[in-house]
Design a protein that fits this description.
Structural class: mainly alpha
CATH topology: Four Helix Bundle (Hemerythrin (Met), subunit A)
CATH class: Mainly Alpha
Number of strands: 0
Helix content: over 70%
Radius of gyration: 18 Å
CATH architecture: Up-down Bundle
Order of helices and strands: HHHHHHHHH
CATH superfamily: nmb1532 protein domain like
Number of domains: 1
Distance between the termini: 34 Å
Largest sheet: none
Shape: globular
Length: 214
């Protein structure tokens, strides 16, 4: 890994998204509760959607364009960026279809399950593909300045919902990752995160499990 490019935020986001995909899979395959009722009111579903949108918007706005400029004349690598963007574009319609299914009280539970499975499998495949194919390209071809720009854009997208998304991102992170994530915050944001945001998140029943940070 290049010393100039710190991938902590990217991997922390990917780990958090995988964590939420596991929750989504459990909710939509449970035989004890109607998943429509759970997802319709679940803070976890809303946070998941905000995080996906923020992460992918930052990549589409600031990461892939920088890489594309650096990869001029390398058609095979440029084709990979097209695939990354296509994979992003395929995820949003599935999320919208799930939301539409949740507004239909007489909706087909089988259809909802199929959509949830498509989202879980599709996003998991994308994260794996990005880590295996795009991350090595980022490390070889992106400058430290371009990576820093992406980091700032990514932070701007997260800042819109920072009181919830920062603790969400920290949830389950190891000590080293948590330290690096917190070190990126301004002094006021760091104080707010440790004093207010994390305690509030700790009692949030994200997936209606009956327990905190479920």
């Amino acid at each position: 890994m290049s010393d100039a490019i710190d991938l902590t935020v990217m991997y922390a986001m990917h780990d958090a998204l995988r964590r939420e995909l596991a929750h989504l899979d459990r909710v939509t395959t449970s035989v004890d509760r109607d998943p429509r009722q759970v997802l319709a009111t679940a803070a976890g579903w809303e946070l998941f959607k905000k995080a996906v949108h923020a992460h992918h918007a930052a990549e589409d706005d600031a990461l892939w364009p920088s890489l594309r400029r650096n990869l001029a004349g390398r058609p095979k690598d440029l084709a990979l960026l097209e695939v990354m963007e296509a994979e992003h574009a395929a995820i949003d319609p599935v999320i919208r279809a799930i939301d539409e299914a949740l507004t239909d009280p007489g909706g087909d539970l089988l259809r909802l399950g199929q959509l949830a499975d498509a989202l879980v499998c599709g996003l998991a495949r994308h994260l794996k593909h990005e880590e295996e194919a795009a991350v090595p390209l980022i490390q070889r071809m992106l400058t430290a300045e371009q990576w820093d720009h992406f980091g700032r854009v990514h932070a701007q997208h997260l800042d819109q919902d920072a009181p919830l998304l920062m603790p969400w991102l920290l949830d389950g992170a190891d000590a080293s990752t948590a330290q690096r994530l917190l070190a990126r915050l301004s002094e006021p944001a760091y104080s707010a995160c440790t004093a207010r945001w994390i305690p509030a998140y700790a009692v949030l029943d994200r997936w209606s499990t009956g327990g905190s940070t479920g």
